[in-house]
Amino acid sequence: MKPSDHPLEQALGMQYYATGTDGIGGVLRSTPEDFKVVELPAKFTGTGPYLIAKLTKRSWEHQHAMREIARRLAISHRRIGWGGTKDRNAITTQYISLYGVAEEQLAALSIRDITLQPTDRHQFSLGLGSLEGNRFVIMLRNCNADSLTDRVAAITQDIRTSGIPNYYGIQRFGSLKPVTHRVGLHILRGEYQEAVKLYIGDAFPQESGEVKTMRRAFAETGNAKAALHDLPVQLSYERIMLDSLAKQPGDYGHALQAMPPKLLSLFISAYQSWLFNMALSARCTAGASLDNPAVGEHLLFTNGRIDTVTEKNIHTASQHIKRGSCTVVAWMPGATLPVTPGPMERDMICLMEKDDVTMQNFADASAFTGTCFDGAHRKIILRTEVVYSITETSVCLSFDLPPGHYATTVCREYMQGSPEQMV
Description:
- The chain is of the alpha+beta class.
- The protein has helices at about 5-10, 60-75, 105, 150-160, 180-190, 190-200, 210-220, 225-230, 235-245, 250-255, 260-285, 315-325, 345-355, 360-370, 405-415; strands at about 1-5, 15, 25-30, 35-40, 50-60, 80, 90-100, 115-120, 130-145, 165, 300, 305-310, 325-330, 375-380, 380, 385-390, 395-400.
- Among the domains are: about 1-30 and about 135-165 and about 385-420; about 45-130, 2-Layer Sandwich (Alpha-Beta Plaits); about 190-260, Hypothetical Protein Yqey, Chain: A, domain1 (Orthogonal Bundle).
């Protein structure tokens, strides 16, 4: 392993590369066609009140696409379910559930860069995680031509033999403005005004001068009506908050709750993801390999069983990991803690204490957002079989990932550029 020297990656906890080989640089997403993802769905029941449709979209932000589909169908966006959010600057294919919608209604829809094809029916609404995984085909262009073939081969071999730190990618924290984990921290502490002012008032270097000026003005004055007048129409989520504040001045909690529920919940999830990334990097700093368990850590077996590594069973645990029957996991904090804290859990609890966050804060956030934040186990290692091809200075990567794993976490091993190049 070697450390990343990018400040933003350091701040977001993505502090190490698995490979010791120098990166190839390059550009990700020169066009949406350079980043293709196809969802691998779980089995549908074949009957039920939910119409399952295959959705293919180009350059659509996920929440915007769902709201536009709902608007065109004249239904509440809450009647649309999905198994996972997809990248914006990409061509993505996934499955969505639509409650009480007929196939004929879909046939009448015409939305730019969106196609919807009825495929099945289901007894339940699709939810986060209700899919088998995702298949990616990604093109990296304008890579460093020096020893390109050798470096791509070496990195691919490192990924195959050692795996990758299973970091949450930069998209989890906001692709253009990675502050969602900090917004989530304020919500957890009940600091709703601070959360709104950070989301609306914090300018980011890549933004236009117009947007930076508007954000600074709102941060200084808190004038929601003026900010709403000056805000570019494409910043729709900021506009939702500002519209709420203009109608109900000073009610910052209501402004947050005016956001789409699933987006609001992502703020809290982003803080949990930051805790996990930081603890995983601390483990890497200590020099432990990803497939070498430590006493106190937890193992997830293929049958779903969770076990704890002890002095007595650590040798057996190592053998199970080598055979692929289990992997090391860490519990991302939430309102519950069903395991005895191991090294990574203790690191996350320590970070929470520094941030003045408790498990009760997650329970309170659950009530505020309408989403459960009990916590969850997450594997510390990402394993995938990468197939590559090279054409001049372009590298094509093809691989599958389970739900909740990030393709950019794979791409960064090859590129090793700034995280801004990952969006």
